[in-house]
Amino acid sequence: MNPAQISSLLKEIMQSIVDSTPDSGELNLADANFTPERPKNRAHGDWASNIAMQFAKKLGTNPRELAGAITAELVKNEGIAKAEIAGPGFINITLDAAAAGAVVSAVLAAGDSYGTSEILAGRRINMEFVSANPTGPLHLGHTRWAALGDSLARVLRAAGAAVVSEYYINDAGEQMRKFGRSVRAAALRLPTPEDGYPGEYIGELGAVVNTAVLDFAQLAEADQLAQATEIAYQQQLSEIKDSLKRFNVNFDVWFSERTMHSSENGEPNAIATALSRLREQGHVYDADGAVWVRTTDFGDDKDRVYQRSNGIYTYFAADAAYYLSKTDRGSDIKIYLLGADHHGYVGRLKAISGAAGEDPEKNIIALIGQLVNLNGARLSKRAGNIVELNDLLEWLGCDALRYWLARYPADSPLSLDGEKLRSRTNDNPVFYVQYAHARTQSVARNAATVGLTRADFTPELLTHETESNLLGKLQEYPLVVAAAAQLYEPHRVARYLEELTAAYHRWYDNCRVLPQGDEAPSALHATRLCLNDATSQVIRNGLNLIGVSAPERM
RNA sequence: GCCCCAGUAGCUCAGUGGAUAGAGCACUUCUCUCCUAAAGAAGGUGUCGUAGGUUCGAUUCCUAUCUGGGGCACCA
Prior knowledge:
The chain is of the alpha/beta class. It is built from 20 helices and 13 strands. The protein has a five-stranded parallel beta sheet, sandwiched between helices. Strands 1-3-2 form a three-stranded antiparallel beta sheet. The structure holds one RNA strand of 76 nucleotides.
């Protein structure tokens, strides 16, 4: 019996109580939450519900009395060993061992899909994250969003949403020109221009340009700039893609800002088209020679300039056109993962959404995250401690880095501690979790060598306290994935895995799976082997959601 | 000035309105002739920043306030 089944059972019972109570016509059960919780305290049973407290007042009774009526019905059901009233009106449900053990076969039958659901089915979600300028390598500042975004995309998909993950490439505008000038200078061995990009990688890109273009120095300056910009851009972008690939981060769409500036056959480009759309909606006005959008109508601090008095579109214009493009390409919900230093963005984005006739509160989800520290030191160019993603991967490995970045809520400050991430103890949770998986695999391998099979699965034999705990954890997994998806909080999966593997390790120490010595294999051994395998499966599924490998040996 | 985020154990941090607020680390002890000891067991910590409010019930929601971080361009 799983939480979903208990939930519908509770709902059924409540409905019949409501139906038989006079003057309860306005009571709406649809809004109530019937999903039981896993109590912290084992003495409170396997599952607990607070619905009696939610409804007592509305039914003109007190919580304990209502709970009594509900428990009387509950115990009539097969699989429920006990249903008790506790405290102010909690209902504590204890399952019999067979009903609790049924989760094992459910997990094994579902395999990789255990934990997936359809709760977000029909949602079309666009997720934009990282979106670093293609003018330099990815560094620590980008890695948190890469890890979090990719994990969230996986979690949302597991909940049934249609997700497009997207990287916006700022390949137009002043930063690109600056980049081009810097690379040209490097290729010609000239000093870095004022306001140019520093860094060794610029020199390397200059070398790439010289290799690609014969007699680069002989070209006219305009051609040099054009070639240097283009070649360095392509090179840098492909390096970014490589880094993200090594980081196990996938993007479905690489969206080039340039495509919105260009047009075919004299048609207006996407940015101009977006402007006329906004103008038709009546949100655009002209003042001081510039073109403005009245974003204050939609809660922004101040109106924003769309096209400057010199005719050049602002960055905001590209953002607006890009936003509309996401809608046009079929996404209802747009998720943005932004650093705290960009949260000023959000007001503008919501204003665009409102101006386009959407509901900003529903169509935009802005996840604002705190920046990452390294060994306690703030990251800054001045301090010279910008660390490239590639270096971090080399130093710490993809698994440790991704796990660490995924286990904290985005809005929580986060510090990377190199020593800790390299350590192989409880200090470093990724090893703890991965080790548990390796253990499950080792048990399964040994079972094969002693000829233990899974045929005699007998769930009612799983009666040890540590078994009951472990079963409860396995049962919880789908709830955790669903909550992580609905709250956009992938870190819940990581935290859950730490609890699950702790339960596994305790069980492992208390309940031996394999027969010892000359002992003949029994149904208990077989049943425990199944529990071992089910745990293994759930650890794998969870690690996959956060993009971390599940090693078979360590 | 306005806006966003954080404040929970000595440290790093969990905690979608519920029962005695939890992990890990650090400290002290135990447990491997037998499935991976990268593990497990035992030992004690809290004015949940402060003050009000909302209700059966608040670390969680609201208001005020203190402290720390970040943000408020015809920059990109």
